[in-house]
Amino acid sequence: MVLQSLKNGLWLSCVLRTPKACFWSAASGGLVIQSVSNDVYQNLAVEDWIHDHMDLEKQQVLFLWRNSPAVVIGRHQNPWQECNLRLLRQKNIKLARRRSGGGTVYHDLGNINLTFFTTRKKYERMENLKLVVKALKALRPQLDVHVTDRYDILLDRQYKISGTAAKLGRTSAYHHCTLLCNADKFVLSSVLKSPLKGLKSNATPSVPALVKNLFEEDPSLTSEMLLDAIAKEYAVQHQIDHHITLINPADETLLPGISDKTKELQTWEWVYGKTPKFSVSTCLNMVYKDSVFDVKVNMDVKHGRIEVCNIDLPEQWLPAGLYSELVKSLTGSKFCPNETTTLVTTLLRVCPQDDELHSRWSLLCENMIRLM
Amino acid sequence: VCIHRVRSCSSIRFIKSKYVCVFDKSALKFSHQQRLFRTSAVSCGQIVQFKLSDIGEGITEVTVKEWYIKEGDSVSQFDSICEVQSDKASVTITSRYDGIIRKLHYSIDDIAFVGKPLVDIEIDASKGVASEEDVVETPPMSHEEHTHQEIKGHKTLATPAVRRLAMENNIKLSEVVGTGKDNRILKEDILNYLAKQTGAILPPSPKGEIVPPQRKAEAVPAAPKDKARKIPVPVSRPIAFAGKDKTEPVTGFQKAMVKTMSAALKIPHFGYSDEIDLTQLVQLREELKPLAEIRGVRLSFMPFFIKAASLGLLQYPILNASLDENCQNVTYKASHNIGVAMDTEQGLIVPNVKNVQVCSVFDIAVELNRLQSLGSAGQLGTSDLTGGTFTLSNIGTIGGTYAKPVILPPEVAIGALGKIQVLPRFNSKGEVFKAQIMNVSWSADHRIIDGATMARFSNLWKSYLENPASMLLDLK
């Protein structure tokens, strides 16, 4: 196996001259590249870049990448429904929305990602997954792995070790999948569980599955070995030399426009704002002084912003004027704890300075914010 | 233009002749007009049903997840139309034609079928400048050309530059008297019309040009402005700046700012500024920084400023008070919850350090670190953002020396700290030395705070900072 760094000026002039890059190696049916970055946004941006700019007619591409802890939701999914956002924030786990469909996955360095780039016509997921299985079996013949008709790879007929998603554009397409080598299953299961009840939406739901790491089956396996085995099999099938070319997703000269793509993937509008319309119908259990009571809350959220907001408070618990100010402020603002906190604390500045009022207000608002 | 074409759809020859009688001969130089004459059968607003093409892998149906266009939008070939999903694959469907979307066959979450119509597109071979709103996006032209614009049945002749001028000033061309050939409206005519409206006499210099200069990347052609009645000389037109104004609702952080500042406006502010010599403090901080680092804390100047303010408030508690809505009662707050203005990605937030009166400088530094990291992560809690009694804004970290800060209700005072500059000053011996100078600008509520109180507080605060050792005497 040869790891080759991209310092060749020839391809650079090639890249800059043609809008559809006639990329790195001049004459071969395939190319295997690996990202040096573990940043999920940078790596997703590389996928976008290759999808938008590379001419895959003559040369198909296999992209290998790993991320530091992140949760990646599918294009049309609802992050509030799919994961525990509070836990993500506490643990500093990133949240990303990819452009392909499918369900939610947890990435960390014990998980490898494989992206198969082809032209739209040559899009073929089963072939790709069979390639992966073949590589695994070549590495460890005793492994019981097979591809299901849902495009999952199962270990021992019951544990999911790989999930798949795809993106099709006008002329090119890509199919990517995960592969669990040695991921933290404990964190995985805790972050992929949403505490939010009463959420109604048409977003694509994830199908939970029992997972297992390949490492648990065979402790001698490492991520590097698996990456190498798959790259080797790809090279054999595409009749190319077994080279893995390293790329740096931060290199703007190599990938012009990549930093804009990376930035876009991190915007709130993309990650949260692309959530299909949904509604939240829940009950806040409020404990105030000696009384305990339920407060029904109904909210409609579109593009990640609160369209409609109804809070069923006991009469006169908050002055009517203040209640309507609260509803008015929330309407149109992001379904986001940070923004809501800023809004509600600001409203406190302009209302009567009454301790009783302030503590009721804080109680209500903190409960509301916990929903987000 | 569009209306004409639809009405005379029956025969191309009929359209041809209709155009000839309306346009000036020079209109034939129009590139897009040439396209109209050149097109074949697919013109005259023919509706084409764009069918959902094969996705691959034998897929026959998909779910429509997002529309990128709506009915009435114009699309170009290869523009994205919608996003559909099928079994973990997300597919971007792009348009095969240039034209206008006339019908969407599905709503969001409907099942769409491969081979069945997805959208109806009205094929439009030429993208004529049909609507008034399109004026800004007129394609670049190398010589003066005339377009006709139909407004309420009136045909008015005017160049695109003139039309743009009219549109920017909300002038209806139908109300302007044209003095050019064939009653064409000239720039002079627009200017005259405006002069009559505003009663202003428009100066002949380019500075008096009505067209706002900052909207254009290139300068508007400097046609002669003098009032002499002459037809404007055709000028080489630079590429029109095709930017459009963007209107968005005020939401989120901005809403919060609007509320706070509107309330703040009701407070009669007065300002008071002074200069602080921080030379000794700078030295002290240099000595203490490594000690704090050993304890895992980043020590900036703010903890000193905050503690000194609290010591000052002990002597002048009215600055840590609150006036009720009816200005009937003043509440002297016991806790010194000193707010620190923070600039985050989303905007201004002001978390506060609670009970500074019982905190050491180090305690304040620890708390500031905590608030700063939460602030940049967007995770400040409600208790961090409420209960403030006095605020300091360190705008100097971004830049600036003097400021006019706005008091954040329900507080009555605020201080803005400028940047620390190295400036020459005279010492007691009359020698020039390098001093570390920072300016502070205070604002206070003049209903209950008078200038003298503010000045004395500022002097006390200044003395603590100029001679940090004196803080030791009064530290609680």
Automatic annotation (TrEMBL), chain A:
Name of the gene this protein is made from: Lipt1
Full protein name: Lipoyl amidotransferase LIPT1, mitochondrial
Function per UniProt: Lipoyl amidotransferase that catalyzes the transfer of lipoyl moieties from lipoyl-protein H of the glycine cleavage system (lipoyl-GCSH) to E2 subunits of the pyruvate dehydrogenase complex (PDCE2). Unable to catalyze the transfer of octanoyl from octanoyl-GCSH to PDCE2. In vitro, it is also able to catalyze the transfer of the lipoyl group from lipoyl-AMP to the specific lysine residue of lipoyl domains of lipoate-dependent enzymes but this reaction may not be physiologically relevant.
Pathway as given in its UniProt record: Protein modification; protein lipoylation via exogenous pathway; protein N(6)-(lipoyl)lysine from lipoate: step 2/2
Chain ranges of the BPL/LPL catalytic domain: 56-242
PROSITE patterns: BPL_LPL_CATALYTIC
Reactions catalysed: N(6)-[(R)-lipoyl]-L-lysyl-[glycine-cleavage complex H protein] + L-lysyl-[lipoyl-carrier protein] = L-lysyl-[glycine-cleavage complex H protein] + N(6)-[(R)-lipoyl]-L-lysyl-[lipoyl-carrier protein]; (R)-lipoyl-5'-AMP + L-lysyl-[lipoyl-carrier protein] = N(6)-[(R)-lipoyl]-L-lysyl-[lipoyl-carrier protein] + AMP + 2 H(+)
One GO-annotated biological process of the protein: protein lipoylation
Source organism: Motacilla alba (White wagtail)
TrEMBL record, chain B:
Function (record text): The branched-chain alpha-keto dehydrogenase complex catalyzes the overall conversion of alpha-keto acids to acyl-CoA and CO(2). It contains multiple copies of three enzymatic components: branched-chain alpha-keto acid decarboxylase (E1), lipoamide acyltransferase (E2) and lipoamide dehydrogenase (E3). Within this complex, the catalytic function of this enzyme is to accept, and to transfer to coenzyme A, acyl groups that are generated by the branched-chain alpha-keto acid decarboxylase component.
Transmembrane feature ranges: none
Compositional bias per record (Basic and acidic residues), positions renumbered to this chain: 142-153
Enzymatic reactions: N(6)-[(R)-dihydrolipoyl]-L-lysyl-[protein] + 2-methylpropanoyl-CoA = N(6)-[(R)-S(8)-2-methylpropanoyldihydrolipoyl]-L-lysyl-[protein] + CoA
Protein family membership: Belongs to the 2-oxoacid dehydrogenase family.
Pfam families for this protein: 2-oxoacid_dh, Biotin_lipoyl, E3_binding
Location(s) in or outside the cell: Mitochondrion matrix
Cofactor dependence: (R)-lipoate
Name this protein carries in UniProt: Dihydrolipoamide acetyltransferase component of pyruvate dehydrogenase complex
GO MF annotations in UniProt: acetyltransferase activity; dihydrolipoamide branched chain acyltransferase activity; lipoic acid binding
Gene: Dbt
Lipoyl-binding domain segment(s): 47-122
Main subcellular location of this protein, as a coarse class: mitochondrion
PROSITE patterns in UniProt: BIOTINYL_LIPOYL (PS50968), LIPOYL (PS00189), PSBD (PS51826)
EC numbers: 2.3.1.-
